[in-house]
Design a protein that fits this description.
The complex is a heterodimer of chains A (421) and B (291). Chain A is an alpha/beta fold and 421 residues long. Chain A folds into two domains: 160 residues, Periplasmic binding protein-like II (D-Maltodextrin-Binding Protein, domain 2, 3-Layer(aba) Sandwich); 194 residues, Periplasmic binding protein-like II (D-Maltodextrin-Binding Protein, domain 2, 3-Layer(aba) Sandwich). Chain A is built from 20 helices and 16 strands. Chain A has a five-stranded mixed β-sheet with strand order 2-1-3-15-6, sandwiched between helices. In chain A, strands 9-12-8-13 form a four-stranded mixed β-sheet. Chain A is globular, with a radius of gyration of 25 Å. In chain B, helix 1 crosses helix 14. Chain B has 14 helices and two strands, in the order H-E-E-H-H-H-H-H-H-H-H-H-H-H-H-H. Chain B is globular and about 70 Å long. In chain B, strand 1 and strand 2 form a beta hairpin. Chain B is an all-alpha fold. Chain B has a single domain, classed as MetI-like (MetI-like fold). Classes of the chains: A alpha/beta (421), B mainly alpha (291). Chains A and B meet through helix 1, helix 3, helix 11 and helix 19 of A and helix 1, helix 12 and helix 13 of B. Chain B: It holds the Pfam family BPD_transp_1.
């Protein structure tokens, strides 16, 4: 055999090298993640990797002889990945979602109905009787359950007790008291309140003003519109007219107010339990107070929280359901709350002694029955994404860019009524 | 097996065989996906599985949001192109002098270009934050009023961040161009009495035309394709003030879940980029000079 390859040999080698990827691509699609033997793939929010859930995963792995591949994402990245998965047919076994996706994917046929499992195991696990009613409704479509709530949260008032005490300000309970308190607390580099650039923080104000986001019967959006305008203008006025709040900065991060609060630069913020842990960790010296949601025309607040669903093409739904059952057990909820202060969807969780005896948790737990799901009716149209995009633009135009609420909101309503038809 | 009869034919076959891996790579990872996007542009529905004909294209051409995002993108691209040429050339000329530490200066200017847009975006987001950002603390310590550029001039701000990141690269290109201009031209002009300004306009700038053309073409393409700046720094806001085209297309695809419509918009953007590039190349070649 010659020591040096001839030109013909080189051609053959080049041809063979070029053919490898082509032939490889003809070898058939790779096995899906769901079907990969011994691996159970879960898409999870990066902020929810609790020790309580790690313990559940370890038990799940041992019981089912599988290895859990817990892939953690921020919500936008999780959605991008998931939609790409749906398009390719390679799907995970279980997905955690931020609220709203279950019905969206049930409508599009990408989520699997869990009704057969609920019929079989529901009574034993207390579903749906032990879940707050709003959590069952938001995870059902055409009378069938497609998802199970993991956390149930709501928005309320967090305040710096020392600042309020020093200023001689009582904890506000209404919008008027809130404005008055914010005025008194503003000064010396401290803002009375910090509002969020994220449009979802619009909803507590809207539901307290008695606004219905979308009425499918009439096709109308943000009714009564005068109340919606007043609620929106009230927020903008906190920033631009009364100057008791800094102008929020547009971005993808919703932790701005929490950071200002933790830095002692804001006396009050309107937020959910997800900000409790960061505040306590970064500023343990802050005397944190939690008060019930503000009241206006209606005693209400915004319901939020995450759920889990199983993709329609998931290969092992039995395992997925077993995971759901384990991770939503009352003991796991209890451990997760102890670890992080997160709120849970079970009715019995709200009655736990440790919840009732914790000043902050008790306020949140008591507010849950008044929590409203603002996007429920919009989700059922399948146009939630478009709605949210338009809402984000409108909210920031008013709150950040100080455009008139009346004109901007009416323009949004006209546009939304057109595409929601 | 086919065996070319002529020597030229054999050389051609050899060349194509060596090109084959690259052709297959580009076909698999560029041309097939582009073909897929073109095909998806004619479909609609959450899974892009229903035929829509030219509806998506008609809708895109009449959609005010698409028009707005294109205007935002065009404004962004103009700022990036102008800044890349002016600042890149100015830096290259400054660094082309026999200064001490110029190698270090070059490296420092090039480092941002080697950094991911995600890191650059987060870095500047934290620097520019009006309430908690470093810049306002520094300005405050100096007794100066704080800035709110992310709210008052968001498009200009993300264009400036883009330039901060990319201008080191254009500087290197211009520097290579400057060093390719024979010194004899400048010496001859000096003997003829031309001052520095006149030599710049009559010798340096015309002879840098190919480099300027390359820089402007690349800057237009990257400006029209910008995404990370809106995604990381501003989220497209405030309102829709920084809703760059690719960011808008991304949202149509992955938020509103209309892959057909987003694909049609992608194809339209591709056409615009190709058209801009061809016009620039034609105009740029006309302006080339030789001495």
């Amino acid at each position: 055999m010659p020591s040096h390859p001839s030109r013909r040999d080189l051609f053959r080698l080049a041809g063979a090298a070029a053919a490898v990827p082509v032939l490889a691509s003809c070898a058939g699609a790779p096995t899906t993640q769901s079907a990969a033997p011994g691996t159970f793939t879960v898409y999870w929010n990066a902020g929810h990797d609790y020790q309580a859930y790690r313990k559940v995963i370890a038990e799940f792995e041992q019981a089912n002889k599988v290895k859990v591949n817990l892939q953690k994402y921020q919500w936008p990245d999780l959605r991008t990945r998931l939609l790409a998965d749906f398009a390719s047919g390679t799907v995970p076994d279980l997905v955690e979602e931020p609220g709203g996706w279950v019905q969206e994917f049930a409508i599009s046929g990408n989520a699997r109905s869990l009704q057969d499992y609920v019929d079989r195991d529901g009574e034993a696990m207390g579903f749906p009787s032990d879940w707050q009613p709003v959590t069952v409704e938001r995870n059902s479509y055409q009378g069938k359950v497609y998802g199970v709530q993991l956390h149930l949260t709501c928005n309320t008032l967090l305040y710096n007790q020392a600042m309020l005490r020093d200023a001689g300000v009582a904890v506000p309970t209404t919008w008027e008291e809130f404005l008055d308190a914010a005025k008194k607390l503003t000064g010396d580099g401290v803002h009375g309140v910090a509002l969020n650039q994220d449009y979802t923080y619009l909803w507590p104000w809207m539901v307290q003003a008695g606004v219905t986001p979308y009425d499918p019967e009439t096709g109308k959006v943000m009714t009564p519109i005068a109340d919606a305008v007043a609620a929106l203008q009230f927020q903008a006025d906190l920033v631009h007219k009364h100057k008791v709040a800094p102008v929020p900065v547009s971005g993808t991060d919703y932790s701005g107010p929490q950071k200002l609060f933790s830095a002692g630069r804001a006396a009050m913020i309107l937020t959910g339990p997800w900000d409790l842990e960061p505040i306590r960790k970064t500023s343990p010296d802050i005397d944190l107070g939690v008060a019930p949601p503000l009241k206006h025309k209606v005693a209400a607040t915004q319901a939020a929280g995450v759920s889990m669903f199983v993709p329609a093409k998931a290969a092992r739904p039995d395992l997925s359901w077993d995971f759901i059952k384990r991770v939503t057990a009352l003991d796991v909820e209890r451990a997760a709350t102890k670890e992080t202060g997160m709120l849970m969807p079970r009715v019995s969780w709200a009655e736990l002694p440790e919840v009732r005896s914790d000043a902050a948790l008790k306020v949140f737990a008591d507010a849950l029955p008044d929590a409203r799901d603002s996007s429920q009716q919009v989700r059922l149209t399948g146009k939630l994404g478009k709605w949210e995009e338009a809402l984000k633009v409108m909210y920031q135009q008013v709150l950040i860019q100080n455009q008139p609420a009346d004109e901007t909101l009416r323009r949004f309503a006209a546009s939304a009524e057109s595409f929601l038809k | 097996m086919f065996r070319p009869r002529t020597l030229q034919g054999r050389y051609a076959r050899t060349a194509y065989l060596f090109l084959l891996p690259a052709i297959l790579f580009f076909a698999a990872f560029f041309y097939l996906p582009i073909g897929n996007v073109v095909a998806t542009g004619f479909r609609t529905g959450p899974m892009a599985d229903q035929w829509a004909g030219l509806d998506n294209y008609g809708q895109a051409l009449s959609d005010p949001a698409v028009r707005h995002s294109f205007l935002v993108t065009a404004g962004f691209a103009v700022m990036v192109v102008a800044g890349s040429i002016v600042i890149g050339l100015a830096l290259a000329m400054a660094i082309d002098q026999p200064l001490r530490g110029r190698v270090l200066f070059r490296v420092l200017l090039l480092v941002p270009y080697l950094t991911s847009v995600a890191i650059v975006g987060l870095l500047w987001r934290n620097i520019l934050d009006p309430e908690l950002g470093v810049l306002n603390r520094v300005l405050g310590a100096m007794g100066l009023p704080g800035q709110t550029w992310l709210n008052t001039a968001p498009l200009l701000t993300i264009a400036a961040v883009t330039l901060w990141q990319s201008v080191g690269y254009t500087m290197v290109l211009f520097l290579a161009g400057l060093q390719g201009i024979p010194e004899t031209y400048h010496e001859a002009a000096k003997i003829d009495g031309a001052d520095a300004w006149r030599r710049f306009w009559r010798i340096t700038l015309p002879l840098l035309a190919p480099t300027t053309l390359f820089v402007s073409v690349m800057a237009v393409i990257s400006g029209l394709q910008a995404f990370g700046q809106a995604y990381i720094i501003t989220g497209g806001g405030p309102g829709d003030a920084t809703d760059l085209s690719v960011f808008h297309i991304f949202n149509v695809a992955f938020r509103t879940r209309d892959f057909g419509y987003s694909s049609a918009q992608s194809v339209l953007l591709l056409i615009v980029i190709v058209a801009f590039t061809l016009v620039q190349l034609r105009a740029g070649r006309r302006g080339e000079v030789t001495y």
